[in-house]
Amino acid sequence: MVLSNHLKADLLLILTTILAGAGWIFSKEALVGFAPLLFMCMRFTSAGILLGCLSPGSLRALSSDQWRASLSVGIFFGIGIAFWIMGLHLASHVGVGAFLTSLGVVMVPLVGLLFGERPNRYVFYSLPFVATGMACLSLDAEFVIGWGEIFFLAAALFFSLTFILNSRASARTPAVPLTAIQLVVAGGITFLVSTVLESWNLDQPLEIWGWFLASVLLATSLRFLIQTRAQGLAPASHAAIIMTLEPVWAALMAVWWLGEHMNLLQVVGCSLIFLAMLVNRWPAVRYWVRLMQNGKSRA
Question: Residues 236-269: pLDDT tens digits?
Fold first, then answer.
């Protein structure tokens, strides 16, 4: 039964990463018509309301401390999302941006120092791979550190903060209301920034609204529901390694759908960043490998 649950978790988490990767493409296509911050405001607010409607009683049952913790996570998540969508809007290479954003996974233990946590040795082992990967991207004549890339790196920092706060909040708050609150707060933050920086135009063709609906229903609501279900079937350490597949799917989909091309140096740079994530999560990698070996031995 345990192995069965782990297998279900694996399949659900892989589906989660595919939906997350597809979300990059959905968003990129929707940005053809929508102002970026307005798009994220509508996307996350709609998804949060949908999740909240699935379990309204759980929202009413939250204590004041749970509400404060959930709102705090939502604020940092909203700021990270604002940076991410501006990066996606300005960047010329979605695949590289996906790997830059994924550096948030590596940053988590380092940012944890601010909260009194001590990073394990694998964090320091991963840093040379990060530095070398960034150097490969920087040395590439086609790669320029512009505003899009800077926004992606800022998003990675805020996503690492979000991860830490979310881990603390999820220990005492049910997943569905916590996620719903995060999404609505993120939508509210992007709404406030959008009112200052953007002009709104909702007169979009049906194709653009189709990409918007795909972002809301598939890449946000369904993705978070599946992820929540999967994380309830397996330890967090088991889930961590599979979730690193998101930038891989995003890069592959960008090549397939957007016709992007990665030269050898870009591939090496992104591969080293991905390797840094694996080194950073090495205990989870070993756990996953042992679990797979035990499953084969019992089969």
Answer: 555 556 777 788 888 888 888 888 887 787 788 7
163-191 pLDDT tens trace: 788 878 877 888 889 889 999 999 999 99
> Roughly what angle, to the nearest 10 degrees, separates helices 2-30 and 206-216?
150
Of 150, 170, 204, the closest CA to residue 38 belongs to 204
Q: Report CA dihedral (230, 12, 21, 220) to the nearest 10 degrees.
A: -60
- Residues 23, 190: Cα–Cα separation, whole Å: 18
The stretches of 92-222 forming alpha helices (DSSP H) are 94-101, 103-111, 121-139, 147-170, 175-197, 206-216
Residue 55's CB is within 10 A of a number of other CB atoms, namely: 15
Distance, in Å, from the CA atom of 226 to the CA atom of 145, rounded to the nearest integer, reads: 35
The pTM score is 0.77
- Give the alpha-carbon dihedral of 237, 243, 244, 247, to 10 degrees: -170
**CA 279 – CA 275 distance, rounded (Å):** 6
Structure tokens at 224: 């978070």
Residue position matching structure tokens 């978070």 = 224
Tokens 């309204």 -> residue: 56
100 and 244 Cβ atoms separated by less than 8 Å: no
Contact between 77 and 182 under an 8 Å Cβ cutoff? The reply is: yes
Distance CA 19, CA 220 (A): 8
C-alpha to C-alpha distance for 160 and 110, rounded to whole angstroms: 9
First to last CA, the chain: 13
